[in-house]
Amino acid sequence: MKDQDVQELRAKFRGELITPGDAAYDGARKVYNGMIDKRPALIASCADVADVVAAVNLAREKKLLLAVRGGGHNGPGLGVCDGGLVIDLSRLKGIRVDPARRVVRAEGGCTWGDVDHATHAFGLATRDEAERMSGHHEAHILIIVTEGSAVSDETFDGIFSMMASGDVRLLVLSNPTRNEGEVYEIAQGNRSNWYVLQVSGWDLPNLLACTKLGEEHLAKSAEQLERDGDCPNPTPYLLTHLFERETAENFGEDSDYYAIHVLGKHGRSGKDQLIPREWIDLAFEREPLPGKAAGGLDIARGGRDHSAYAEVNGNAIVRLEEWSKLEPNQTVGRMLGILEDRDFPVAVDDTGLGGGVAPLLKETYRKVFGIDFSERAEDETRFANKPAEMYWYLRKRLDPDGPDPLSFKLVPAPARKRMTLQMLKPTFATKDSKGRLSVDKKGGGSESPDTTDAIILALEAQGRAGYSGIRLNREYDRTDPDLRRSEFAGVGEKRF
Q1: One domain, residues 321 and 458
Q2: Is the pLDDT of residue 334 over 90?
Q3: pLDDT tens-digit series, residues 145-180
Q4: Among 128, 118, 185, which Cα is nearest to 158's?
């Protein structure tokens, strides 16, 4: 493939084009089957449908060998090729569920786990999912289930029906990513006649080899490990010391993410859950402390979405309300009533419909500024986009061991249940080729977390007003009296 062809595609491509000379190349060409070792000339990691069209057109015009990668789980490795173009759809994970019509539409990067996660929220399963497992009876049967956490209880019911007679054995392999369902109950010892073996990353060859190098090697940071390159890693495609250190540094060794992905244990919360339930419960009990005030307004996109307004004062959320089916000028009128006699900054969702509300509101209430959720993060080295950065800051502000954890004690009673349910949805993962944090604020569902969006907007406005809570971009040391840096634009030095 000619460099000119790559450059022509790059000019109209929103996703990421990865060539053999790029640092992300080896990771991007890997598929689920570790025995497949193919080397494409170009990997087109598509961000949208237009990217797919552009890549297909290039392959047709230049007569390139073409492979299409979805979830990357194809056994023969057909999602990658030697010397050709790979169209990687793994970033396209949009799922729409129509519970009334019982129809689900999934983008090309979705796995069955993604689809099941979305449909199960509505009590649905893919057609004949359980029935496909029924009706098989032999004298001797070995059933092997992989990715067990993604298998629905209905499917397990079908599998169990196969065990009604004969010599039948069932082997279930799973990552502990769901705190519900059959696999979770088995792992917790709540099902009889099961032998449970938990495997930690520290029991695997790569980490065992690093352990033998001594405490000095184990104490290295991820940056030092990457620089020195001295981890033995005798078994490719298994968990590495570098991954363990990156996970510990990004999420903490006491986090659910570390427990699930390194220790092989079920976390205290759900799969990759951004905010643990116990943190929310503690926030409802925590005493409010007054301080700088600010507001956040999230604008509804239509459908079942609601517009939501949140107000923060010091460490406390003091006001939270929602409404729907109002035109932009009606929303402005409602907000002017709320903000009467107020004198603090208000951040407004400036994406889509919000772009019409912010300037109208600012004509009367001057301390309004817009936040576009599609914009880049301030710290692009750690966060894939602005929402990921803002949601991670919310997590930090709810950490009970943080310097100034939030209080929900003043949240109005009618709003508490809905706010809690929405706050439990967001999940996180390091998914892009640069290892940056991304957040799925809907948690794989379809409902927008309007009240939580309003809260993160209020916290952003409070930060820009000079509130000195915690540092977002670096780990904080609560014993250091001289921490003085705010990561918010427009805020000078602030003492913690």
Answers
A1: yes
A2: yes
A3: 988 877 877 788 878 877 876 788 999 998 887 776
A4: 128
pLDDT at position 36 is 85
What residues contact residue 180 under an 8 Å CB cut-off, 6+ apart?
Answer: 270
- 302 and 215 housed in the same domain: no
- The pLDDT tens digits of the residues spanning 134-148 come to 556 677 889 899 888
Overall average pLDDT of the 302-323 stretch: 87
Q: Are 44 and 85 in contact (CB under 8 A)?
A: yes
User: Computed from CA positions of residues 233, 235, 240, 242, in that sequence, does the dihedral angle turn out positive or negative?
Assistant: positive
Helical packing angle, 49-61 and 3-10, nearest 10°: 150
357 and 398 share one domain: yes
* CA 276 – CA 398 distance, rounded (Å): 9
- Round the average pLDDT of the chain to a whole number and report it: 83
Which secondary-structure segment (H or E) carries 454?
A: helix 450-464
The pLDDT of residue 493 is above 60: no
CB 24 within 8 A of CB 53: no
Q: Are residues 246 and 360 in the same domain?
A: no
Same structural domain for residues 298 and 407? yes
- Closest residue by Cα to residue 52 from 110, 107, 3: 107
User: Do residues 429 and 364 make contact, with C-beta atoms less than 8 angstroms apart?
Assistant: no
Residue 37 lies in a domain: yes
Whether 374 and 300 map to the same domain: the answer is yes
Distance CA 81, CA 380 (A): 32
Range of the domain at 236: 201-261
Query: Based on the domain organization, do 80 and 174 belong to the same domain?
Result: no
* Residue 315 clears pLDDT 80, i.e. is over it: yes
Asked if the structure places residue 405 within a domain, the reply is: yes
Among 117-131, 194-208, 234-248, whose mean pLDDT is lowest?
A: 117-131
CA distances from 373 to 180, 342, 443 (A): 32, 25, 17
| Whether 173 and 209 share a structural domain | no
How far, in Å, CA of 447 to CA of 121, rounded?
Answer: 11
Does residue 42 lie within any of the structural domains?
yes
pLDDT band at 445 (very low <50, low <70, confident <90, very high): low
Distance of alpha carbon 406 from alpha carbon 311, whole angstroms: 12
- Distance (Å, rounded) from C-alpha 57 to C-alpha 44? 12
Smallest CA-to-CA distance from 424 within 407, 454, 445 is with 445
User: What count of other Cβ atoms lies within 10 Å of the Cβ of residue 415?
Assistant: 18
Q: What is the pTM of this model?
A: 0.47
